[in-house]
């Protein structure tokens, strides 16, 4: 996808301009056009039908990334177990997921739509100052947490995280970074701070989804990336990418990658994934959708995905979910303030 150049973190007209944390190559104009076209196709596709008859799952990023993976694993689990007769996945990339969020916020009362989101989407609403927030949809459940990995191309001169950080510290602009969304960008900033590098001096190439980030690495546009383990595991195992660090509090069983913390860089942010529905649905529909999501997570297909991608299961619903999202927003807002935005 072709993207125009824009400074992320720039305030909209009429608001106080904030200091930009990254010099970023990226934008959302073309993505917005794609999102609007996709929105037109889903807004009337299943209106009025029972949720077990037809469902659209919206991945707010391009194909190949973490949100897309969650959406397609949910689709497969629901179809294989006849939880929903007809399930389609629609990719709606742009602006860290806020294009999709804005479109879903207009599908009021249309319970036949689910949207995947998570830490990155919440971060993007803050970073972009988007008009639509998670308050404009019906949050149903957090499903699991995912760990980021720091990766470089297989032919990169950097064999270890120390090698990468040393070169990055010597000339911060010499290594363009990329990632699949706002969460990955936060991880890069946190790693920069842990390494004693001013994040303002770092070049970050914005990608819509993990698939685009991987392509940026493989075609030489970017020199290093952070992204979800599930986004990158195939490329790591095939030998096309080299994993330098796992971003987790402690080593994870089944993932043979040293943590950044164990290598002297205390970076431990986790990327939780959630599912939401449009606002304006009834209490009964909200309950039915929450039950559908929980049923999906109990299927053999979903359990297999949990194991295959090494997702750390963490299901949060109801009042606990509302409190969790409030606290997470506060945490991310504070991180952006520390980064200078």
From TrEMBL:
Parts of the chain that traverse the membrane: 21-42
Key word Transmembrane present: yes
Matching Pfam families: TctC
Keyword set, alphabetical order: Membrane, Transmembrane, Transmembrane helix
Signal peptide: none
The keyword Transmembrane is annotated on this UniProt entry: yes
Annotated InterPro entries: BUG, Bug_dom1, TAT_signal
Record-linked Gene3D superfamilies: Bordetella uptake gene, domain 1, Periplasmic binding protein-like II
Top-level taxon of origin: Bacteria
Family per record: Belongs to the UPF0065 (bug) family.
Name this polypeptide is given: Tripartite tricarboxylate transporter substrate binding protein
